[in-house]
Amino acid sequence: xxxxxxxxxxxxxxxxxxxxxxxxxxxxxxxxxxxxxxxxxxxxxxxxxxxxxxxxxxxxxxxxxxxxxxxxxxxxxxxxxxxxxxxxxxxxxxxxxxxxxxxxxxxxxxxxxxxxxxxxxxxxxxxxxxxxxxxxxxxxxxxxxxxxxxxxxxxxxxxxxxxxxxxxxxxxxxxxxxxxxxxxxxxxxxxxxxxxxxxxxxxxxxxxxxxxxxxxxxxxxxxxxxxxxxxxxxxxxxxxxxxxxxxxxxxxxxxxxxxxxxxxxxxxxxxxxxxxxxxxxxxxxxxxxxxxxxxxxxxxxxxxxxxxxxxxxxxxxxxxxxxxxxxxxxxxxxxxxxxxxxxxxxxxxxxxxxxxxxxxxxxxxxxxxxxxxxxxxxxxxxxxxxxxxxxxxxxxxxxxxxxxxxxxxxxxxxxxxxxxxxxxxxxxxxxxxx
Amino acid sequence: xxxxxxxxxxxxxxxxxxxxxxxxxxxxxxxxxxxxxxxxxxxxxxxxxxxxxxxxxxxxxxxxxxxxxxxxxxxxxxxxxxxxxxxxxxxxxxxxxxxxxxxxxxxxxxxxxxxxxxxxxxxxxxxxxxxxxxxxxxxxxxxxxxxxxxxxxxxxxxxxxxxxxxxxxxxxxxxxxxxxxxxxxxxxxxxxxxxxxxxxxxxxxxxxxxxxxxxxxxxxxxxxxxxxxxxxxxxxxxxxxxxxxxxxxxxxxxxxxxxxxxxxxxxxxxxxxxxxxxxxxxxxxxxxxxxxxxxxxxxxxxxxxxxxxxxxxxxxxxxxxxxxxxxxxxxxxxxxxxxxxxxxxxxxxxxxxxxxxxxxxxxxxxxxxxxxx
Lengths: 434, 373
Prior knowledge:
The complex is a heterodimer of chains A (434) and B (373).
Chain A: H1 9-15, H2 18-26, H3 28-38, H4 55-77, H5 81-115, H6 122-147, E1 158-164, H7 168-189, E2 193-203, E3 206-216, H8 221-225, E4 230-236, E5 247-257, E6 283-287, E7 305-309, E8 314-318, H9 324-358, E9 368-373, E10 378-381, E11 387-388, H10 391-395, H11 400-433
Parallel strand pairs in A: 4-9
Antiparallel strand pairs in A: 1-3, 1-5, 2-3, 4-5, 6-7, 7-8, 9-10, 10-11
Helix pairs in contact in A: 2-3, 3-6, 4-5, 5-6
Chain B: H1 6-15, H2 19-26, H3 29-44, H4 53-68, H5 73-77, E1 79-82, E2 85-88, H6 98-115, H7 119-123, E3 129-134, H8 140-152, E4 158-164, H9 167-182, H10 190-193, E5 194-198, H11 224-233, E6 247-250, H12 257-262, H13 266-271, H14 297-307, E7 312-316, H15 320-332, E8 336-341, E9 347-353
Parallel strand pairs in B: 3-4, 3-6, 4-5, 6-7
Antiparallel strand pairs in B: 1-2, 7-9, 8-9
GO molecular function (chain A): translation release factor activity
Organism (chain A): Arthrobotrys flagrans (Nematode-trapping fungus)
Domain Prokaryotic-type class I peptide chain release factors (chain A): 289-305
């Protein structure tokens, strides 16, 4: 398990206010400043400075910025689409790093000025230090954000599906509680949503829900809500229990991106279809022909064509026309359509397997991502390690967003760590080779 | 002709009783089957035979017998399918080959994907795009290029002139043009945009306008062929500013005298004119002695390309060795050159372009799968 080493629990529970998180959704750049101030990084550059970036992150950022500069240099000489695309991806990193370095440099100079008691400027410099520190915080937050690769479906709207897990009728009661929690969260966020399916039945002690599906049509909603996917565990004395024992039950939440909306207006399998694009290097063409010198020497009708798309193994044989080239181009058209069809099917299967992969079938109580402990009035997220001690308010949708934001930060940090580990692995490989 | 073994005949008879007939010339069972399929679909187009299977079969059998005597399929059917266009076939001209089709399609695809991609190039300095097809025969290159260029919808249009020495081939070419217009494959404007003229590329006859003295592109009088080409293109462009022709394309006779007896198929020798296959024995005065007989058309055509300041020149050749000879000849005359392979993997085409035109896209692989290298 990866330890969320940087989280300062004290800070998180004390200072994360609802205002900060609302801002985070409305104006991320501004809000990161506020949030960043409250989270302490464990790996510090400077002993007493909590706002500098971790050394490993800085190293990675510098590498990427250097790569960006090299690519830009190449582009000046010769334009190439691939290089341009890569450079475009790296541009935010390079810009954020420049900003960060400028701010750090600034701070150093100001400190030198401020520590000189004889200078007239020392007072002014001392005044300027706090805003500069703020600037460093902003830019380092931006830098970290730019380093983390975005989730491939981050820009999409999503659907939330809630189903009861282990625990029988108590689980259906909890599923209903979760449904209410998410609807109030969505209305708090003012995100457009609609209930696709909500099936309830009466249980002892309240209304149970056997399935609830909410569709959220706000773009980018998947980026935030994907952290909610998983098994939610509840520990309480159910209304159905008559001996006062605490039960543990679960409900599973699935969050899936709503794909497919992005497909443009084109007929499937035509040249405009992005899935129908194939590299001619992958296509093997066989023509049924006699051996010989060809050209003017031979006048046999050799028109039958067979084309194979090697990566997918799709074969198309055409002999409709007497013109070999006519057959060739119709074979290619059909091949493209078939490849597109196969790719589309694979994409759908991928989406389906993603759906299955979100929650393991029969997920037990131990695979939970979050525990709602009613007896202790506590909600704990097992990934970020955050706890909230006002359960009723959280179930009403308040304070949930802070928890999700915490998980997002944890996720971001984890992806940065993975990124760094991969980088180190590559580096050590290179060294070994040398 | 070696006789067909009993085993193969039995094997073919199991599939169709007419296949042994078609096997006689093809010698590959798949090709024989493909011939049979084509002939069958040809039979179905005859409305008069529609209601009588017996007569249909009799007719089909008679066609198969003709094919068994090595008559080319295109002669039996009457037309050759040359990509989009149909070319009438007859004894007077060479049947258009798949390799030629590839050459034209690759050129047109490259023009579409690399050359006419921006507006300035599409305008072509306000001139129509001019193509000169020498040794055109029954005109397949000219007609297919016309069909492809109409699809590009150039702002100033295009003009294509096909030149051949053979009267009978030119008759076929003109009839093919009308045939395609009648079938709606080519628009009516093709009568204006595509022309066919008679003329000898190797030994141009003297002009009726002068004594053979050359007074530049704007004046008639160099030779009869030059006059024909000039009068076809001249009212379309301002030659003072640039070339009179944009592309010279040619599939000249390129088979050597020995090769004609050794490498060509019986069907070719029996049913296609030798004049379209083997260059004449009498060598023109302006061709150097060290040029092989099968190569003599290439320098002669190159002279036309240079005279009309063509931007590019595209040849079909007999194979790897001839391609390298033609390439060397073009290079020695200041062209940038390259070769294209055909579907057999043989270097079938030599392309040349003037350096200042920047037409090196001619060597880029085709985008729509029309190239083989």
